[in-house]
Design a protein that fits this description.
Elements lengths: L11 H8 L6 H11 L7 E5 L7 H8 L4 E6 L2 H14 L4 E5 L12 E7 L8 H11 E12 L5 H13 L3 H14 L3 H11 L1 E15 L2 H6 L1 H12 L7 H19 L2 E14 L1
Parallel strand pairs: 1-2, 1-4, 2-3, 4-5
Antiparallel strand pairs: 5-7, 6-7
Helix pairs in contact: 6-7, 6-11
């Protein structure tokens, strides 16, 4: 066992580049996932939608060198990021695979643990992915995944819908609802698709966190909102209506923030603990 502070050959610039890269969005989901997995030695682990390595690298380290963790993601640049983090963190029991979860390049009954940290929301064919998870999971394998729920940021979506209604934009309201439920299933729907794939749901743990902003203007400018949400919101209305619709929404959110002292957007989520029977 090595107890050095910094592995040899690692520059300060490399160290700083991976030191605080974890998005706040991923952390609450991932902490609940890490609290749900059952720790065992010498097992094979799969992380679906591993992105730049969380919780993939965390799992590899917590389960020890006798275990091995594979991560799969179609994002090519993510593999380079994970390679750097492996080097800096001196983690050897990790393999990154570029690909999609609808076609896992692993043999049957291969993994004793499969996880996905808010990744199943974003796959193209959920039923196919779950079928592949079942195929590659060994008997009694644990399957743990987190998802955010339809009530995510409901405070914003209520203002969005009220604005569309006031402007008489009925078709846009339908698109808004489609946007919400296309990525965020009800808990009962998740249970159904998981059971249909052959897994048994052992437990569902619910939690939530809040995004807090000084006002709506700050929220719309926030980096992760711009990265992950804003473009989808803009597509709900026609391009010519964007200034009017979102101008009204921003003013309403700013008024709410003024009345309440802040703008608070809640993000409820769930962690599913499942087993292959």
């Amino acid at each position: 066992m090595e107890y050095c502070n910094n592995p040899s050959g690692i520059s300060d610039s490399d160290l700083i580049s991976v030191y605080d890269e974890l998005p706040l969005w991923s952390a609450p989901f991932g902490l609940l996932l890490l609290d749900t997995v059952r720790l065992k030695k010498d097992i094979k682990i799969l992380d679906i939608g591993c992105g730049t390595g969380f919780p993939l690298l965390e799992l590899a380290q917590r389960f020890g060198k006798g275990s091995h963790a594979w991560g799969i993601d179609p994002w090519e640049e993510a593999a380079e990021r994970i390679a750097l983090k492996k080097k800096v963190m001196n983690v050897e029991n990790v393999t990154m695979v570029k690909g999609v979860a609808e076609k896992l390049p692993f043999k049957d009954n291969f993994f004793q643990l499969i996880v996905s940290n808010n990744g199943l929301n974003n796959v193209e064919d959920l039923n196919r992915v779950l079928s592949e998870c079942y195929r590659t999971a060994s008997n009694n394998a644990q399957f743990v995944f987190t998802v955010n729920l339809p009530e995510t940021m409901i405070e914003f979506y209520q203002v969005f819908e009220e604005t569309l209604f006031a402007l008489g934009k009925k078709s846009e309201i339908e698109r808004l609802h489609e946007h919400i439920f296309s990525k965020r299933k009800l808990l009962a729907d998740w249970v159904d698709v998981v059971n249909d794939a052959g897994f048994s749901v052992i437990d569902i743990r619910k939690n939530k966190f809040d995004y807090r902003f000084a006002d709506g203007t700050a929220m719309f400018s926030y980096y992760f909102i711009r990265l992950a949400f804003r473009d989808c919101w803009l597509k709900i209305v026609s391009e010519k209506d964007i200034p009017e619709v979102f101008g009204i929404i921003e003013k309403k959110l700013n008024k709410i923030a003024e009345q309440q002292g802040e703008l608070r957007l809640s993000v409820p989520f769930a962690c599913f603990d499942c087993i292959k029977v």
